[in-house]
Design a protein that fits this description.
Helix content is 22%, strand content 5%. It starts with 18 loop residues before the first strand and ends with a helix. The protein folds into two domains: 47 residues, no CATH class; 33 residues, no CATH class. It has 82 residues and is mainly α. The chain is elongated and about 55 Å long. The chain has a two-stranded antiparallel sheet.
Length: 82
């Protein structure tokens, strides 16, 4: 089973709530942080950006329906459903 946690993504490991300050370890995947952890997020970082809502730019009904479904999923992940 997978789950989603919506947080404001940090710019580097130092600002991340998932790093352990004492031993410089990523608490998500238990990987040792590199020396420049205060400057950037490594390529292996498991945090991914939220998908953006889509706007229908053409007249095809199929695309409009597909975008409505996509946007409903984004709303659900953000807790913005009614």
């Amino acid at each position: 089973m997978k789950s989603v946690l919506v947080i404001n993504a940090p710019d580097n490991c130092y600002e991340c709530n998932c790093s352990n300050e004492g031993c410089y370890l990523c608490q998500i995947n238990r990987v040792q942080l590199e020396d420049d952890f205060q400057e950037r997020r490594p390529d292996w970082c498991p945090l991914r950006p939220m998908p953006q809502k889509r706007i229908n730019k053409d007249c095809l009904v199929v695309h409009e329906i597909w975008n409505e479904g996509w946007n409903a999923c984004v709303d659900e992940m953000l807790g913005e459903t009614e």
